[in-house]
Prior knowledge:
Layout: H1 3-19, H2 23-30, H3 34-42, H4 49-58, H5 71-110, H6 116-133, H7 139-156, H8 160-184
Helix pairs in contact: 2-3, 2-4, 5-6, 5-7, 6-8, 7-8
Amino acid sequence: MSYLNDQILKSLRAARQRKGFSQRELSAKSGVPQSHISKIEKGGVDLRVSSLIALARVLDLELELVPKKSLPAIKSIVRSSVSADYEQGQKRIHKQLAALLEVAVKAANLDSTPGLSKELEAIQRLSGQIERLQPSVKALAKMENSTKMLQKALRQNSGIYEALRYSEEQLRSIKNFAVHTAISSEPVKSAYSLDEVDDDE
């Protein structure tokens, strides 16, 4: 696989993950079969321009031929844009986690069901782990659903234990997905560069 092709595939995969799309969701939105997307991301097939355009449109990317001299400036702009989008997504995740925790604490204080404090402790622990892992924005939907369920249980003053349990399960799922994504997206270092890596990294 050529260096250029490798860079395009990495960019597509990173854009899909930033959007929080699974390969199946991207397939449904772009019309490109999921099995083909999987092969594209693994470099198992030659990427056709038609597939590239279909995927790029769904991922809010544009294909453009630019003069080689302009490439460093364009790459710098793209990096800062991606960084800003990522930071915005993380702020939304932290805000939603805080809202979920606030409702969970209120719910736990309202109900005296045995085992409730363990559920709350698990939710608090998982929230801290998730913040450190910095999951994709796809996690927001699960957090919002959990928060709504807890708020409903609070209003009705019933089903609080079940709502806390559901929230814990959702947070555990988010954490596991974030851990898996972080491990699978770590760059593989070539053998000749291993000696140059600092121990701090």
